[in-house]
Amino acid sequence: LCIQEDGTVLIYNLFCEFKRHFSMGNEVLQNHVLEAKVFHTEYGTGVAILTGAYRFSLTTNIDDLKLRRMPEVPGLQKPPSCWAVLSQDRVTIVLLAVGQDLYLLDNTSCSVVTPPGMSPSTGAYLQMAVSFNYRCLALFTDTGYIWMGLATLKEKLCEFNSSIRSPPKQMVWCMRPRSRQRAVVVAWDRQLMVAGNSTECIHGEHRFVLDEDSYLVPELDGVRILSRTSHEFLHEIPEASQEIFKIASMAPGALLLEAQKEYEKESQKADEYLREIKDQKLLPEAVSQCIEAAGYEHEPDTQKSLLRAASFGKCFIDKFPPESFVRMCQDLRVLNAIRDYQIGIPLTFTQYPPWDRHMTDTSSSPSRLVLRRLYPLAIRICEYLRLSEIQGVSRILAHWACYKVQQKDKSDEEVAHAINQKLGDTPGISYSEIAARAYDCGRTELAIKLLEYEPRSGEQVPLLLKMKRSKLALSKAIESGDTDLVYTVVLHLKNELNRGTFFMTLQNQPVALSLYRQFCKHQERETLKDLYNQDDNHQELGNFHVHSSYSEKRIEGRVGALQNALDEYYKAKNEFAAKATEDQIKLLRLQRHLQEDFDKPYLDLSLHDTVSNLILDGHHKRAEQLYREFKIPDKKYWWLKISALANRGDWEEMEKFSKSKKSPIGYLPFVEISVKHHNRYEAKKYAPRVTPEQRV
Question: Domain end: 437, 465, 493, which one?
């Protein structure tokens, strides 16, 4: 991160290639940056700014930018002598010193705080340091006094008087996770002082002379001391290493290491050392100590010596679980590979994440190598650690491909071919992600070529739409057979193109056109009409008007819509549909008159139901009129009439009707209907007239 005077923060990758920028707000822009600090919390990387107006602004996560303006410090007329960012209970706060006063700024207020156990005579604050885990705080005053305590300012751990009154260039914490030994490293121009509370190594302070100007970098388990020519790491010696290597140590690990060395010399002392360990029943502990100490060593020769001792001791233990030994060998091979000067990632064992951590974790070794574009070593480590292909090699190859598309010195065909040759059908590879990176780099044609290798249409189509290759996206969606995907593209085209161009595009894609028609039938009826008009599809236009007529509430509107349908059916030369529509118009008009004359609902009844209802209501002449006008078949009309008369119980009219002329349906139906209505007397009247054929 590079923070400019106007509050603009520039973000670069490890190769100093610009990625993006953001602003810390108008107030910072107007008052400029007086001082800035970059900090890291569980939420990500944050930036804190002290402006020329002596106000603080900060963001806790540069990837999810939310700017916060901290409360004003009352009466502050000059810059604070020192300040630091603290993280407590998931809240980021600012601690600043003005002379002998300490102020704590949270989201809403500014409060004065006093460290416990600090005398007013200790002087004004010159420097402060927060530990890597934000749990501890150190303060340095102009009298050379150092106060060490918890960052909550509720407990003092210890204090020292350095007798050096000049302001230090840097002050940082040096401590190991889960260790009770704490120390502060203070640096001046060519002098380094370590002050701590260890009972064995450091008690009070120790001073060292620096050959060059140096810079301190606090880390999880120690402090890196960087100069123009050297890189040193200052840290607390782990307990296992102390036990083995301190002078005249009788720890089981130390004895086992000596036993192994004597064994290599073929000396009988090896047996004596082993017996001493076994007599105390400490051999498993000795093996574990050697394995653990090997992890903290940087020199491969020392690592090998300790692991040989552990392997030697394991031979004399029944059922010693080998997992810890195997895992340590694996971890050290990886650590030694990345510590090599040609790679230059000098991780400590404490900083090295578990060997089975996924590639998705950016702190894992393969991820660190990928970010440095050291792809071959990253792949070899994944294969060595036997990470699954999807979590390991596939992810590295995808990163490589995303980097490859940024190379402008090769043609699109060469890059696409090289990527496909390397990746092939490797599980877990998404060509669409690589194509998206190519598109972001302005290489649209390369992105399209890469998408040809993407087997999942659902991944191809959205990117093609984003690249404004809608017609190609439509072809891919249709090839996939996924109707939802086709609908997505069609609706995108509808919003993107003008109406005429959109319809012409669909004409060349029958599948898309058919699906769009289905969509319009349910969602956009008027658009459906336009589609049929453009195609001169008179048959479907007639069907459209018939369907529309039923949504009309007024009879005139319904008849008008049916009249339009009639015209379209004539144009389509569909005589049957035209005749049926014509009859429906005639029926609607008759039903309206019947409704007006008899004040009963006849609209929307079928022709047969209309005739039945007229007979039921005793309007026989009107029923006869419909029978003649619509040319209802005789057999159908006779069935309708006798059923309606029987339902009405008008047996006299039924008998009269039976004698009006010869029945086209015979007389058995008269008998059956009479029996159905439990009138055996009437049934007997028609029984003699039933023909022998009907009786059979």
Answer: 465
343 & 406 share domain: yes
Q: What is the DSSP letter of 98?
A: E
Contact of 208 with 192, CB cutoff 8 Å: yes
Strand partners, 170: 187
- Determine the distance from the C-alpha atom of residue 353 to the mean position of all C-alpha atoms in its chain, rounded to a whole number: 24
Least confident span in 68-77, 299-308, 525-534, 554-563: 525-534
| Domain interval for residue 441 | 252-465
Whether 338 and 203 map to the same domain: the answer is no
Residue 458 lies inside a defined structural domain of this protein? yes
Same domain for 225 and 302, yes or no, is: no
Q: What is the DSSP string of 124-180?
A: -EEEEEE-TTS-EEEEEETTSEEEEEETTSS-EEEEEE----SPPSEEEEEE-TT-S
DSSP 197-255: --SSS-SEEEEEE-SS--EEEEETTEEEEE-SS-EEEE-PPPHHHHHHHSTT---HHHH
Q: CA dist 691 to 668, 676, 694, Å? A: 8, 20, 5
Instruction: Give the helix/strand (H/E) hosting 470.
Output: helix 470-480
In a shared domain, residues 233 and 316: no
Q: CA 215, 218, 223, 229 torsion: positive or negative?
A: negative
Q: Could you count the other beta carbons within 10 Å of the beta carbon of residue 5?
A: 12
Number of folded domains in the chain? 2
Whether 178 and 274 map to the same domain: the answer is no
Residue 450 belongs to a domain: yes
Dist. CA 685–CA 267, nearest whole Å:
134
pLDDT, tens digit, for every residue of 217-251?
Answer: 999 999 999 999 999 999 989 999 999 999 988 99
Q: Are strands 33-41 and 231-234 parallel, antiparallel or unpaired?
A: unpaired
Domain assignment present for 162:
yes
In 3D space, the residue among 652, 650, 654 whose CA is nearest the CA of residue 669 turns out to be 654
Last residue of one domain, picked from the residues 180, 214, 240: 240
Same domain, 195 and 284: no
If one counts every other C-beta atom within 10 angstroms of the C-beta of residue 75, the result is 6
How many other β-carbons are positioned within 10 Å of the β-carbon of residue 637?
22
Asked if residues 60 and 92 have their Cβ atoms less than 8 Å apart, the reply is yes
pLDDT tens track for 638-689: 888 888 888 888 788 877 877 778 777 777 777 788 888 888 887 777 777 7
Residues 317 and 226 in one domain: no
657 assigned to some structural domain: no
pTM strictly above 0.70: no
CATH number for the domain spanning 153: value is: 2.130.10.10
> 634: how many CB neighbours lie within 10 A of its CB?
12
| Strands 101-105, 91-98: pairing kind | antiparallel
Do both 225 and 287 map to the same domain? no
Burial grade of 308 (CB within 10 A; 0-12, 13-18, 19 or more): middle
Q: Is the pLDDT of residue 528 over 80?
A: no
Instruction: Name the strand (E) or helix (H) holding 535.
Output: helix 525-535
